[in-house]
Design goal:
Elements: H1 2-7, E1 18-20, E2 23-25, E3 29-31, H2 46-57, E4 62-69, H3 87-102, E5 106-112, H4 149-168, E6 174-177, H5 183-188, H6 203-206, H7 208-221, E7 227-232, H8 247-260, E8 264-268, H9 284-292, E9 295-299, H10 309-313, H11 323-331, E10 337-340, H12 342-346, H13 350-355
Parallel strand pairs: 3-4, 3-10, 4-5, 5-6, 6-7, 7-8, 8-9, 9-10
Antiparallel strand pairs: 1-2
Length: 374
């Protein structure tokens, strides 16, 4: 028994406090945003509030909510995805904030528009066509007409309005979803952005929409309200895609977004241990921190293993890397915060169990966990 205990790496690095301006987190664990679809007619109810409260009660430092719809008819593709507009939905979110704060947690909403990934005819507004920079889906197929300048400006305002509402109802910050091939990412990516006006062209011209969204959000919330931006190189079903194929190009993009008002870069990768560029072990978050100096969150398969105990005792970790790698990178300040997704979805007590060394009690993620709000 004693020999086994000696093999277990201390997880203390995950439980150091972190401060960003007025945002004071009790530890480095972030609940990653995960679409759940348990909000009928876009309104989160008591079950959603309880779902988030359970994670706060069990020691998650920062909760980032599931993606929430900005005020646009084609923002999402299901009536059970929560809205972040309208009195009923915002009252529901105010109760979520109240519950999380009572439990000692911090919480940000993720504001979202899916763009061209929304199938034609989707609820809740089947008459609304999907929108995107060039009307192209992720395979480059034409589905609809490119967004007009007026449409672009209306959507930018919808992001800003959502951020203002987040501040008004008591959230601790706001995250803009700019990753995974959704609307903002569709502007950033040359496959889906074939525009020839000021919102298309080279990488920095394609970045104009993202930059203007961030600027509008920052103007709406003021200088001291934390603004996070989730970014990824990969897209849904396009895992090898890259916005920037060199550190120099990534620096150009991230610097512009940072200057626009981003405080936190939430750097989504499929596997946190994979290097972003050849010649360096830094992952995407590591490069973002090195290039901008801003707060960064790493995410990607943290805690996913059939028997999560093996992360701490057998060196298997997420099927490939052991926990030592994650903790070494955190201790070396390669990144600041660690987002945990499906492992926390399956087990609301994940953070508390890890802190207390109760690895044998961790509940592994299975697809069944997606069917209910545990």
């Amino acid at each position: 028994m004693s020999q086994k205990k000696q093999e277990v790496r201390s997880t203390a690095a995950l439980f150091q406090p972190y401060t960003l301006g007025n945002l004071k987190l009790s530890n480095r664990i972030v609940m990653a945003p995960m679409t759940r679809g348990f909000s009928p007619n876009g309104v989160p109810g008591a079950n959603v509030a309880a779902y988030y409260r359970r994670r706060a009660e069990n020691g998650v430092g920062l909760i980032i909510t599931e993606g929430t719809a900005i005020d646009h008819p084609a923002a999402v593709e299901s009536p059970s995805i929560p809205n972040f507009h309208g009195e009923a939905a915002l009252n529901g979110w105010a109760e979520v904030v109240k519950q999380v704060h009572e439990a000692g947690g911090k919480i940000m909403p993720q504001i979202w528009h899916v763009g061209m990934t929304r199938p034609v005819g989707s609820e809740p507004n089947p008459e609304a066509m999907p929108i995107g920079p060039s009307g192209l889906d992720l395979n480059g197929n034409k589905v609809t007409e490119p967004m007009t300048i007026d449409e672009i400006q209306r959507v930018i305002k919808a992001y800003a309005d959502a951020a203002a509402n987040a501040k008004r109802i008591g959230f601790d910050g706001v995250e803009i979803h700019g990753a995974h091939g959704y609307l903002i990412d569709q502007f950033l990516w040359e496959t889906t952005n074939q525009r020839t006006d000021e919102y298309g062209g080279d990488m920095m011209k394609r970045a104009r929409f993202a930059i203007e969204v961030v600027q509008a959000v920052r103007a709406a919330v003021g200088p001291d309200f934390p603004v996070a931006l989730r970014l990824s190189q990969w897209k849904t079903t396009k895992y090898e895609a890259k916005l920037a194929d060199t550190p120099e190009k990534l620096k150009e993009l991230l610097t512009a977004l940072s200057d626009a008002g981003v405080d936190i870069f939430h750097c989504s990768t499929r596997r946190f241990w994979e290097p972003e560029f050849e010649g360096s072990t830094l992952n995407f978050a590591g490069w973002a921190k090195k290039l901008t100096g801003k707060t960064v969150i790493t995410v990607g398969s943290v805690g996913l293993d059939e028997a999560f105990t093996s992360l701490f005792t057998e060196g298997k970790g997420a099927g490939k890397q052991d926990i030592d790698d994650l903790l070494d990178r955190l201790e070396n300040q390669e990144f600041d915060l660690v987002a945990v997704g499906r492992a926390l979805l399956a087990d609301p007590e994940w953070a508390a169990k890890v802190r207390e060394g109760r690895f044998e009690d961790l509940k592994p993620f299975t697809p069944d966990a997606l069917q209910t709000l545990v």
